[in-house]
Amino acid sequence: MKIRVRFAPSPTGHLHIGGLRTALFNYLYARKEGGQFILRIEDTDEERSTQASTDAIFQGMLWAGLNWDEGPFPDGSVKGEYPPYFQAARWEQGVYQKYIDGLLAEGKAYKCYCTPEELGDMRAKAQAEHRPPRYEGRCRHLTQEQVKRFEAEGRKPVVRFKMPAEGETVFNDLIRGEVRFANKDLYDLVIRKTSGIPTYNFAVVVDDYLMQISHVIRGDDHISNTPAQLRIYDALGWRPPVMAHLSMIHGPDGTKLSKRHGDTSVIEYKKQGYLPQALINYLALLGWSTPDSQQIFAAGELERKFDIKGCQKSPAVFDPVKLLWMNGEYLRAMDETQLYAAARPFIDDAGVARGADAEFLRKIIMLEREKYKTLKEIPDLISFFFTDKVQFDHEAVNKVLKQEGAKKALEAVIAKYSVLADFSELPLEAAARAAAKENGLKAGQVFHPVRVAVSGRTNGPTLFKMLEYMGRDKVLARMQAALELCS
RNA sequence: GCCCCCUUCGUCUAUCGGUUAGGACACCAGAUUUUCAAUCUGGUGAGAGGAGUUCGACUCUCCUAGGGGGCGCCA
């Protein structure tokens, strides 16, 4: 069997973490099995679908590196045999209507003239009477006269699919095993809206079949839609794809991940300085694992090791702290060139290091690399190298420069450094230690004031390398200026 | 209310009838160190509850409880 999977988002907002995870599992399954990964835009919601959302989905997918084999692309091009991969446009081409007509002709579907208000009333009444709030089939057996009257009133019908009243619908989910639904719990769902546009539950069936999707991998919030869709496959005489329902991602409070939990758009993670590889690695581990619980995956390794058998049935809580750790791991694993390239936009954006020499900037970035958890925090961590005047942290000044002996230490170091022949790491350290010894100070009593004097902070890179990179002029000038802050 | 799904450390998970229940994040302690971080070592910490099946259950079955999802002319 040819493996064909799809990610089918509706363009009604940004691509979020949950959507990206679903896309990722489809992508990985396709890559692992040597199949095709298809992107299809389900824009049958005329009111909420927007072009901006479609663009955002493209952008998010591309940034995350989830390249699709078939579907529409941001430049307007389309790959694959089933263009345009937008359901609304496919509807305009008449893709769905013939199947609806067929069901109507065979009596497997019927027109329903109930208005939204009537439906609302029925639901409310059912709720009040403790009955399930679903459509009871009022228009299932309308007489010719009734239809005529409704038509005369100008009512526009929807088309509903007739669900069987008895029996069971059973399917074998790749992740959950056998799942059974009693048909009596199904209801006659709308497959064509008054606008003529098919509803989601109908359009997915038609498109998945037409596009020869072999496996439907989606969130388990779709489990309850599955029996209805299976009934439609059956009515159309089609063989359904294999179903695989992924567990949901939850927020810390145990409910489905939503905006308030940080299910922010994928692009927001980019802006916050996350690496796409790190996000992807982290997401792959939400609801999936290898038999040995491997944590970090090298490039291409997920594609090779992904196995749907390793998918978890239970929901996973999104843990931003672990994501942060993982991002740090990826940052530390980058080489100088990669890190520089990744960090540069954030540095430019922050307006730090304007006009700095690229080689120099690269060295400075590497100096503090083991501290980075996100790219976004890099500018702040290195900014003091480039400012004209040191921005002193008040706490640092009070705790260090105001201490007894600080002034003496700085003066001694200034004296040494002014005449130091080789202004590089080792001699700098030796000179500082000598200054300490000669003045009866402990090494720390000298090192700390020097650090604060030149950087304004108590935390920073390894001291003498930092001084070396900063250069004699700047170091001396800064220490000189800091003397005024000592008491 | 009805239907469906789920249940191993705080979190992500391994285990596929016999293990001192393993790993990772986080946390704690120690080592290293000029700071922070990184790194290394060690530690705390789990099978929801109850019945079965079995020589033996985290693992299989049932019940209970808890959690989640769905019940639209949204997808």
Describe the structure.
- There is one protein chain.
- The chain is mostly helical.
- It has 3 domains: 4-93 and 248-284, Rossmann fold; 97-246, Rossmann fold; 394-485, Arc Repressor Mutant, subunit A (Orthogonal Bundle).
- The protein contains 21 helices and 13 strands.
- It has helices at residues 17-33, 51-64, 87-92, 97-105, 116-128, 144-152, 200-210, 226-236, 266-271, 276-284, 301-305, 320-333, 336-350, 358-367, 378-382, 394-401, 406-418, 425-438, 443-455, 463-470, 472-482; strands spanning 4-7, 36-39, 71-72, 78-79, 109-112, 158-161, 168-173, 177-182, 190-192, 215-219, 242-246, 249-250, 316-317.
- The strands form 6 sheets. The protein has a 3-stranded antiparallel beta sheet with strand order 5-6-9.
- Strand 1 (4-7), helix 1 (17-33) and strand 2 form a beta-alpha-beta unit.
- Helix 17 (406-418) crosses helix 19 and helix 18 packs across helix 20 (463-470).
- It is elongated and about 110 Å long.
- The N and C termini lie far apart (80 Å).
- The mean pLDDT is 95.
- The structure holds one RNA strand of 75 nucleotides.
**CATH-defined superfamily of the largest domain:** HUPs
Instruction: State the helix count.
Output: 21
Total tally of structural domains: 3
Please give the radius of gyration in angstroms: 32 Å
**Main CATH class of the largest domain:** Alpha Beta
Q: Which structural class best describes the helix and strand composition? A: mainly alpha
Task: Look at the structure and give the mean pLDDT.
Answer: 95
Helix content: 40-55%
**Tally of DSSP β-strands:** 13
